Amino acid sequence: MPTRTPPTLQSLPARERILQTAHTLFYREGIRATGIDRVIAESGVTKVTFYRHFPSKNDLILAFLDYRHQRWMAWFTDALQRYGGNAGALVPALAEWLGSESFRGCAFINSVGELGPSLPGVVEMAQRHKQDMMAAIANVLVPSEQREADAQAIALAVDGAIIRVQMDAKPDAALQSLNRVMQALLNN
Q1: What are phi and psi of 4, to 5 degrees?
Q2: Does residue 35 contact residue 47 with C-beta atoms inside 8 Å?
């Protein structure tokens, strides 16, 4: 998901400043590595203001994941349409995100890896995100009896591609493999 130039942070309401700051820091540096004091300092709010909006770090984490989900899904569905609105749109759409300077993997996979069962809401949010991603993939596939099964397999391959790019630092090999998996699935 390429980054957009955000409005000036200070012009936003306090809750939005906190959420955007947390989004940037949690995604770039990790949830556990980012303390509340840093979010407060970088968002330019007081502790009282922060805790009025987010009574705990866990509340902020769940709000961050919901915010990320809304933003990423809006970008993803738009990108699929911009690249043709069919199965062939998936790889170029993902190339846009996987090749962006700000790419740090999937916030949901990363969050489950960091927090997993210690915060069950994270797992629930990740499951919802992956279900919605799979539905968006299904929407660009040709209707067939195996459409849902194909979407599920492609979504799994997308997750694999995301992880591969985190290790390789360049998306080329992951995108080529994803394209090959899609061709094998959809040309049968």
Answers
A1: -100, 155
A2: no
Distance, CA of 117 to CA of 149 (rounded, Å): 28
Q: Of 54, 22, 26, give the one whose Cα is nearest residue 111.
A: 26
In whole angstroms, what separates CA 161 from the centre of its chain? 13
Give me the helices (H) in the chain, please: 14-29, 36-43, 47-53, 57-82, 90-98, 107-115, 120-140, 147-168, 172-186
pLDDT digits (tens, 9 = 90+) for 85-125: 999 999 999 999 999 999 999 999 999 999 988 999 999 99
**What is the rounded CA–CA span in Å between residue 110 and residue 152?**
20
User: 123, 127, 122: which is closest to 155 by C-alpha?
Assistant: 127
The burial of 12, by beta-carbon neighbours within 10 Å (0-12 exposed, 13-18 middle, 19 or more buried), is given as middle
Residues 6+ apart with CB under 8 A from 152: 134
Residue 148 phi, psi (nearest 5): -65, -40
61-90 b/e with 16+ CB inside 10 Å = b?
bbbbbebbbeebbebbbebbeebeeebebb
The angle subtended at Cα 161 by Cα 156 and Cα 162, nearest 5°, is 100
- Whole-model pTM: value is 0.91
Q: Among candidates 177, 133, 179, which has minimal Cα distance to 155?
A: 133
